[in-house]
Design a protein that fits this description.
heterodimer; A: 229 residues; alpha+beta; four-stranded antiparallel sheet; 4 helices; 14 strands; disordered N terminus; B: 112 residues; mainly beta; Jelly Rolls; globular
């Protein structure tokens, strides 16, 4: 199988490191074909499941904030919102999603993160994802919406595989916050695979960023003080 | 570039809010922080105007800026960080591994 595969590098994949997206196309039947963009192959759980009868206040706030920015009526979005997953991870979070007027899935993992793309064709082929986050008491996670043509999503943190669940088009995985590099692999039903690399950037490094900013601000204030009479 | 003229739509009806970055093009590793306050949300809106799916992140830190929670990344914006902090700063950042520029529509935070 491996020898029959055609490898197609998309976008930045030819460049070393970083935010790389690579697509491998299986040799039989689909060679040379690129996968559908983003989640444009459809997210059927948003039609199949019943709308949520009630939603938490934080979900209402999310919809009220993001829907207008996607030219979508918040009331209509709230009426159509679905609960795709329940009790996820150590925070026992629920995942709600609605479809914007442009057809993009907008989702929120309650208490943690929300994503709302401009178009269903945005983002990685087969998966609108977000990774990282967490707090002192809650691990980091991968959460996303996969299109109907996706069979599975795989996650490796620093080379170690992490179990990923895919139910109702919603993907979830939890991992220790100490990870530095993530590789997300999207496996489609036709056998093709896409990978996304993410530098997770640990808080220690992030603190260094802030220290650098503060040093810059101090230096700027000092130079402005010296310039004054 | 038409995208540069796009209106910035930021969250409304918050007790306190600050748009601490808007309408800029960022390379890998660029970052910005908000003023300190009680924070219940951080919004990061961006476009991959040159393609390549650059990634943006959000996180919150205490007011010293030295104790932060972990970055939350995505290559599709708008990201809404639903975490909160009693008193601290919000940040947005272009991932250090990005190979393409990213157009940051806005980074905005607030409470209420």
């Amino acid at each position: 199988m491996t020898t029959r595969r055609t490898r197609l590098l998309v976008g930045a994949a030819a460049l070393a490191g970083g935010a790389v997206l690579a697509v491998q196309l299986a040799g039989h039947g689909s060679a040379g074909r690129e996968p559908p963009q983003g989640v444009s192959a459809g997210v059927s759980a948003l039609d199949r499941l019943p709308p949520a009868a009630t939603v938490p206040a934080s979900v209402v706030r999310f919809v009220d904030t993001v829907a207008p920015q996607r030219d979508t009526d918040p009331q209509r979005a709230l009426a159509q919102i679905r609960k795709l997953r329940s009790d996820l991870g150590r925070a026992h979070s629920d995942l709600y999603a609605f479809r914007s007027a442009a057809g993009a899935p907008c989702f929120i993992l309650v208490g943690q993160v929300g994503i709302c793309a401009k178009s269903a064709t945005d983002g990685s082929p087969g998966l609108h994802w977000t990774i990282g986050g967490g707090t002192a008491s809650v691990p980091s996670n991968l959460v996303g919406i996969a299109s109907d043509d996706v069979r599975a999503v795989e996650l490796a943190i620093d080379g170690v595989s992490v179990p990923v669940s895919l139910v109702n088009n919603a993907v979830f995985a939890e991992y220790a916050t100490s990870g530095k590099n993530a590789v997300i692999t999207i496996v489609r039903k036709d056998g093709t695979r896409s990978t996304v690399q993410v530098q997770l950037e640990q808080p220690a490094a992030a603190a260094e960023d802030l220290q650098a900013i503060r040093k810059l601000l101090r230096e700027r204030a000092r130079s402005q003080g010296q310039a004054q009479p | 570039m038409a995208i540069m003229a796009a209106a910035v739509v930021t969250p409304a009806a918050l007790a306190w809010s600050q748009t601490y970055e808007q309408n800029v093009v960022w390379g890998a590793g660029s970052t910005k922080i908000s003023n300190a306050n009680s924070i219940t949300s951080n919004y990061v809106s961006f476009d991959d105007f040159q393609g390549g799916l650059p990634q943006m992140g959000t996180r919150l830190c205490d007011s010293s800026g030295l104790n932060c929670n972990h970055w939350r990344w995505s290559n599709t914006g708008l990201i809404t960080d639903e975490r909160n902090i009693a008193y601290g700063v919000a940040s947005c950042k272009a991932n250090s591994g990005n190979n393409y520029l990213v157009y940051v529509r806005y980074c905005a935070t607030g409470n209420g």
